[in-house]
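User: Fold this, then the next.

Assistant: Folding the first:
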Amino acid sequence: MSAPTSAPASAPTSAPTSAHVIADAAEALAVAKRFGAQLAEGDAERDAERRLPHAEVAALAASGLLGLTVPRSFGGAGLGARDLGEVFVELAEGDSSVGQVPQNHYFFVDVVHHVGTLEQQRFFYGEVLAGRHFANALSERGSKTAWEYDIRFERQPDGRYLVDGVKHYGTGTPFAPWIPIYATDRSEDPDGRLVAAWVEASDPGVTVQDDWIGMGQRTTGSGTVRFEGVLVDADRVMPAGRMFEQAETFGAFGNFLHAAIDVGIAWAALRDATELVRTVARPWPEFGAPSAAQDPLITQEVGDLVLRTRAAHALLREAGAAIDAARADLTEESAGEASLAVAAARAAADTAAVSVSSDVFALVGTRSAAKPLNLDRHWRNARTHTLHDPRRSKLQHLGRHALLDVYPPANGWV
């Protein structure tokens, strides 16, 4: 395995000078299917060698698949959540690490939509359509909860903001021209207000470290980002906290994309395992089947794994439709129903990804454990990615609503 490195940030090689602009949902899905199939060809090798997908992310940006939710009024396809979920499933089935990179990107495109000024929307939508995409630097270590941000963020006399501190798990930062952060702005509000600030990866004082060494999702580029006296123009800062002062679908949307990644992992595990059943597995001699693919016990187990995956995928589609419906007529009830639908999809996708990627080994037998096959990457990816948002929290929200008629809170996490 190549060792993680630490190097100052520079203009990423993955930033294209231009990108294709996709017209509609049908084109988006067709492009995603082709791109996902191409990703699958090198997925096992990239994971085994921990080779960061600079070229693959550059191709993803150039393909137009990172500009899908830019509104039609700004020149984009204006894709809804349900259609975007299908795109994510295709990408994650091809390579779940590459498929996770756009999750943070679309998370922040949604921030622009909700709280960006018209001028900010024009600028950042233009950046997105040109293929200059967003990573993220949200998480910090040492704070009481994951919702608290201690990074220094202070308004300067010239109107700019000083950013100084360290962020962790910065998924996609080695590839992206823009690194949005969350911070607490106490310059104008003693209680602090949540803001999102867009930092250019090439800004002086920004250092991206390739030090993510997780057992799964190994090539997401989820390392440490250091900000040393970085100055950010005021027009690159947005009041993210305003999103949670009323009914919102922002949190549901972010979780929905995570669920789509998990569904893609489950399908990828099934794809690889069934191919091994057809090509290398042997039937159990006791039952006299002519091939493993005709062994009734294997057939039964495959059917059960397909059922789990199809059920999770169906709940994902239902959740996407609920988000789209809430966006069209936003009320506390419609937002709550979207959050519940996403909670169900997220919990089901978690179960499907982890269990299917584990149970596929029994279909193939001992050969499936051979290291060169790298079949275990699907379980490692599923187990790692599902830690983002515990399944138990989703079950709590579903149970509370069933028993007490209480919707999940509007906090950006559900």
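Now the next one, as you asked:
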Amino acid sequence: MEWAMAELINNPRVMEKARQELDAVMLGKNRIVDESDIVNLPYIQAIVRETSRRVVVDGYDIPAKTRLDPNHWENPLDFRPERFIDEDGEYCEPFGFGSGRKMGPGISLALPLLHATLAAMAQCFELKLDGILDMEEKPGLVVPRAHSVTCVPLPRIHPFPSI
């Protein structure tokens, strides 16, 4: 979640595109996005998948012949959720990424929550940085951030809809 929010803050074009999709699907700002809306939010799905796509982890290149071989990605270091949107504007998985026997058993619970939380944050708040956003990683099993994201959430929706 923290990496996804950091990428959205660092990429205002992506944040704006996500908000345009949210505003169109939610038909305004009368209610907050929930898990049942995610199927209609392909760009939000693509943002989550792009956040998970890694070519370098803690300074080490993923070896050639893996599913994340940098030769398979155009501009692999750029944050571009459009990689996971097909020509019809639908969410797609070009390499079957994130599936199969080695996928974590909790992923089916975590992903819907991640999608809905990320979408709600983008829908409801402007995130103003409190300092500089550093994208440095530190060693660890799940590629933790070296420095936490510290920002000030300002309401984007006035008045805030009831839940």
